[in-house]
Amino acid sequence: MRETVTAAVAGLRGKLGDRVARLIDFRIGLATGHRLAEHDRRLAEHQHRLDDHGHRIDDHGRRLDHVQPLQEWTANELERIIPQVASFEARLAAIDDLLSGTPTADDAQVAQARSLIDEIRREHAQIRVRLTGVAQYEERLGRLEERAGQSS
After folding, report:
1. What is the pTM of this model?
2. Residue 102: phi, psi to the nearest 5?
3. Which of the four pLDDT bands, split at 50, 70 and 90, describes residue 27?
4. Distance between CA 44 and CA 51 in Å, rounded?
5. Pick from 2, 74, 82, 147: most CB atoms within 10 A?
6. How far, CA to CA in Å, does 99 sit from each of 90, 107, 130, 152?
7. What's residue 111's pLDDT?
8. Half-sphere exposure for 94 (CA within 13 Å, toward CB)
């Protein structure tokens, strides 16, 4: 009879242990379920933000791919124009030296020099307009690159 009672008590202990374990699991589930749900919600939100940043980076990459050849062309044009501007500046300085250094000149020489100065001034004004356009383009390109750098 003692063995029967021991076996019955052991069986009850096992059932009671299972019930207590299930009760503890249930209580832990109640306590942590909302936290896990909040964690899942925040994880999905962060994933959405990551996806959005990825799309923005891709968009900036496409825009940079479009702007880069234009910037290279502009730099090439600027390198090409700089010697011309320097040449015009040198010619203008030489003519200015001629005019200021010559105490007497006949009317034909003065008229020719003035004509040449006027021509150089016109060309110089055209070059200034071109360089202004290039500078504005460079400034715009710099702003675009700065925005692209801030976004990433």
Report:
1. 0.36
2. -95, 115
3. confident
4. 10
5. 74
6. 14, 12, 28, 58
7. 86
8. 8
8 A C-beta contact, residue 64 and residue 148: yes
Q: How far apart are CA 100 and CA 98, in angstroms?
A: 6
Q: Percentage of the chain surpassing pLDDT 70?
A: 95
Domain ranges of the chain: 2-151
Of the chain, the end-to-end C-alpha distance in Å amounts to 80
> Which residues have CB under 8 Å from 109's CB, separation 6+?
102
Residue 27, H or E segment: helix 2-101
Q: Which residue has the tokens 């936290």?
A: 35
Supply the DSSP symbol for 106.
-
Cα 148 from Cα 54, distance rounded (Å): 13
Nearest to 70 by CA among 149, 151, 136: 136
Mean pLDDT of all residues belonging to the chain: 86
CA 9 to chain centroid, in Å, comes to 74
φ, ψ for residue 104, nearest 5 deg: -130, 140
Rounded mean pLDDT of 143-148? 84
Task: Return the axis-axis angle of helices 107-151 and 2-101, rounded to nearest 10°.
Answer: 180
